[in-house]
Amino acid sequence: CSKYVNDLNLLEFFTSLLDSPTVPQEKTVAELLRRVKRGWVWNQFFVLEEYTGLEPLYIGKLHSDMDQGDGNIRYILSGEGANSTFTIDDSTGDIHAIQRLDREVKSQYVLRAQARHRVTGRPLEPESEFIVKIQDINDNEPKFLDGPYQASVPEMSPIGTSVIHLTATDADDPTYGNSARVVYSILEGQPYFSVEPKTGIVRVSLADMDREVREEYQVVIQAKDMGGQMGGLAGTTTVNITLSDVNDNPPKFAQKLYQMSVPESAPVGSVVGRIRAKDRDEGANAEMTYRIIDGDGRDTFDITTDPTNLFGIITIKKTLDFESKRSYTLKVEGSNRHLDPRYLNKGPFSDITIVHVSVEDVDEAPEFSAPFYYAEIPEDVEIGTIFKTVSARDPDAANNSIRYSIERTSDPGKYFYMDITSGALMTVLPLDREEIAWHNITILAMEMNNPNMIGSVSVAVKVIDINDNPPSLTQYYEAFVCENAKAGQTLGVHRCSSDNSAWILTRRGGWSQREQSVYHLPILVTDGEPPVQTATSTLTVRVCSCDADGNVLSCSAEAYTLPASLSRGALIAILACIFVLLVMILLMLSLRSHRKKPCLTDEEENVHENIVRYDDEGGGEEDTEAFDIAAMWNPREAQLGKLRQDMMPEIESLSRYVPQVCISGGIMATGDGNVHSYVLSKLYEADLDPCAPPYDSLQTYAYEGEGSVAESLSSLQSAASHNDHDYDYLNDWGPRFRKLAEMYGVIEANNSLW
Q1: Which alpha helices (DSSP H) does 485-627 contain, by range?
Q2: What is the pLDDT of residues 564-612, one digit of tens each?
Q3: Which CDD domains match (predicted)?
Q4: Dihedrals φ, ψ of 729, to 5°?
Q5: Quick check: helix, strand or coil at residue 29?
Q6: Suppose 287 and one of 65, 337, 399, 418 were both cysteines; which one would form an S-S bond, judging by CB atoms 3.0 to 4.6 Å apart?
Q7: CB 250 within 8 A of CB 350
Q8: What is the pTM of this model?
């Protein structure tokens, strides 16, 4: 048979059996050897990991009983790690490890061995399988795989409260020796925390730790193998511990008295201010609830908690009035929303403060005595009748005077008038219920001292109906009577009304179309309410021929019907032709009325540059032949008057080319009025005719006549003289220039000297 020999590993194997807790310590080595000899598993080898020697590590020897030492047997090794991790001497059968072994990487190798004849290669024994187990040494320190760690524990926790459970992992073999036996200890974090050596549970070791004093702690935990003995390997980790909050602090207001103010015009629901009771706790433990527990403003104001549950919001509950009450006092309590029964002894968890609210005066608009007014007025009321009086007052302490008016857009027809001081509403136009039955007007009240302060109120005015309209037939009625109708028979009515109707009866018989085909019957209609109103309408009654049953066969109305042969299309064509003819006639008349005169030609009528020459000097006031002033007073007579006898002008007056316009009112008292009207009429006619002269031009006359005793009267040559003129010489020119001397004040000056 074959045997595998490994003396060194055999010794280590028995040593491990002695250390194993499953083997009783009282067993002797001899007993163990005898048991192994009887049942030893010979196909196992043991080798220590992490061999660092320079020579290959000897593992064991493979030997066959057929080996005579003559070198004819060859040993062959195969399986896991053969020829790479393990080698065998094919002559001696010695097995060595040529690579560094690590149990944490691979704890055992399964190999196969066989003895063959070196020459023939014939197997001398069947192939056998054996195992090489790697024995552990303490070459791995404990490790905290999930570190660093985060943990929390409520503040004020008692001693021994568990914080976190730590576990360190050692890669060494836990079944062999103490290489994987870990012991925990705390390096940092005393005296606040501790750790259990065997379990790794971190616990509170100091009572009443307060988060508000210190919130964060850093604890360093060590894990050491070999049971914590000298020479063991160790690993460390950090645990960051946070103290979580508990409701152990009562809230406190920062002030015992808060001052707030609000204008009296603030609407209901407006925010007055906010207050806060501060709590050293956080989160839900700091949430507050507020309420008004006392004070004269508990019915006027309200307090609610904001969405963060930290602040108390004071709002207006009722309308404020500075003139009625100018300040309020509120007693407010703020308390924690969530209480912890374990810490009620640290309470009370509430606080009280006083809030003083001042109401500010605001200039308010006038207020009417009623929210709206209603009035009824008959439609026949006399103009100026006062039918309603409204009143408003200034709600401010100043109580300013009020002025009333009507908002004009509410009374577009201007039917009413408002007295500005008394507020009396009266009519200024007749009312008619049949046109407007309701008037909704708006009355404005304005402060005299502040026109921007305006109050308004609606007044609904109902116009009461009176019997002021006579009755009338609702539509045109036409009836017929048969020629064979008898007395007392009802007339046939082509149109009738469903209410307030009347029947027309015949008083005789013997009707004939030949004698009279149409009767006009006057109808008197009277209403029944005072004052009684009456009206007369006419009913047209036609005489028709009827059959025995009273059905109409023919009436005189047949003459008004269209011939049956004339279709509707033909009628439309005739009307269209008539319409086109009318349009053409209107167009021709329009073109004729807008036909323009030809413009004046330069040879015939352009006279704006013609020169009229006169060979004599004017004769003054005594010269009645030169020009008749009546021509300016009455231009029409000027054309018919006599021309000057001693000369003939080269052109005639332009007025003969322009039609004359009669001056309304006849000849005026003064000539200036007629001249002014004449000039204006000519200017108007020239503006309307773009072809008529005169055109814009400038005529310069720089030449004066010669031979006059008065010499030149022009001032054109005297522009450079700055001295006053002396006109005394006008007295020497005789009576002809007396009027001119009076105009220049010569005679008046001489008289003053006299």
Answers
A1: 568-593
A2: 455 677 788 889 899 999 999 998 888 887 665 555 444 444 444 455 5
A3: Cadherin_repeat
A4: -70, -15
A5: helix
A6: 337
A7: yes
A8: 0.44
